[in-house]
Input
Amino acid sequence: VQLVESGGGLVQPGGSLRLSCAASGFTFSSSTMIWARQAPGKGLEWVSGIYSDGSTNYADSFKGRFTISRDNAKNTVYLQMNALKPEDTAVYYCNRNNDWGQGTQVTVSS
Output
């Protein structure tokens, strides 16, 4: 199993980023995929999940700002992040069951 995140970077407050997680080594289309994050000095925080039927779920903090989606043809899950705040600064991870990617750093700063 391999999960490879990309798309992080430095963005100004109010800006947007789209994270990608390319998956391999398992049947992606039938898997629940999760985005989680870890801010500096804090624990891991669940952000959003997308299920095999395409339904989605979000932690309250991200509803209306973040959108999770998937492309089963590309074995990729995305996280569109809008209206970013400095407190969104974190390493963002992709997850499937007990498998994690290496993470991608998102820094929101002016």
